[in-house]
Structure formats: C-alpha cells, structure tokens
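Handover notes (outgoing to incoming on-call)

Open items:
1. Endoplasmic reticulum transmembrane protein: sequence verified, structure written out, both below. Nothing else pending on this one.
2. Nothing else urgent.
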Amino acid sequence: MIQLLYTVIAAEMALILTLLFKTPLRKLVIMALDRVKRGRGPVMVKTVAATVFMVLSSSVYGMAKIQNNKLEAGALNPTDEILMARHMLESSLMVFLLFLSLMIDRLHHYIRELRLLRKTMEAAKKQNRGFEDGKNGNAEEIKAMGEEIASLRKKIGKLELDCEAKGKEAKTAQAEAEASRKQSEKLLLEYDHLVEDNQNLRNQLESIDQSSLQSNGKNM
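Endoplasmic reticulum transmembrane protein structure tokens:
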C-alpha cells in the first residue's frame, strides 16, 4: 500500500512539473487530462478519490482506536506503535496524494483558461489590426476623394470662366445683331420711302402723259 502511494505521488509530482514548464510533453498531458475529464472520466476519478478518502478514514479510525488503547493501558506496546506509525504514514501520504490531485486539476483548469484568454486577446488584436487597416484604407479613400473633389472644383472654375467668356461673346453677338436689325429696319424704311417716291413719280408721269395726250387731241 505504501509503495503504491509513493508511486502515485511520484507520478503526480512528475505530472505537476510537466504542467508547470512549457514543453512539447505538456501538450500531450493536457490532451490526456482533457480526455479524462470527458465522458466517464470524472466518474472514475471521483470513485478513486472516494476510495482513497475511505481508506484515509479507516487509517484515521485505526489511529484513534490505538490512541484510545493507549489511554486505557497507559502505554503502547511495540505492535501498536508500529501500527500507529504505519497509519500515520499512510494517512499523510493519502492526504498528500489528494492534495496533489487537487493541484493537478487546478493547474489544468488555469492552463486552459490562460489558453482561452490568449486566443481571445489574439482575436482582439486581429480585430484591432483589421480596424486599423480599414481605417487606413478609409483615410486613403477620403484622401483620393478629396483630390478628386479638388480637381473637379478646378474643372468647374474653368467651366465657369469659359461660360462667362461665352456669355460675353453672346452678349456682343446679340448687340451686333441688334445693331444689324436696327440698320435693316432703317434700310427697309428708306426702301419704303424710295418705293413710295417712285410710285409718286410714276403717277406724276402718267398724269403728265395724259395731259399731253389730251392737249394733242384738242389741237387736232
């Protein structure tokens, strides 16, 4: 029994040392503990722990019984002393075994929590990098849009100047057209006057011709 307890304690100590230091073997140990904690593993562990606790209780009861015999007899015989020492050693080893088991369970739990925390932090860092990259991309897009807006403003200013020049040209052309229209109206009026004078002259000539014809007819 004592040799078995020493063997189990030595195995547990080696397991704890493996969990404390980051080595390739620790990954295998963690995977093994993960499998132990799944399915029927927890039931088996609890059963073994309950068995050890019962044996521990039996050893404590044996020590209490030997202590009572000592009180009754006043002294212990060599056999009781050997049994008392054996029970004390077994009890100490079993308590130490249970303590190491608890340490292994807590170390495994904390290592898993630390891994999850690291994964969460890495994911957060990746998100921050993606956000910063997106922010830089948006800044570049905004800069490009600003440059495009500036070029469009220059084009708009140039177009406004062209429109203003075209407007001046149009006003000049309109003024010239207005002057031409007025000149045409004057020419039309003069033409009408000339036509009217021509008609008057024709009428006068016709009246003169008629008068001459009439005077010639009287003379004959």
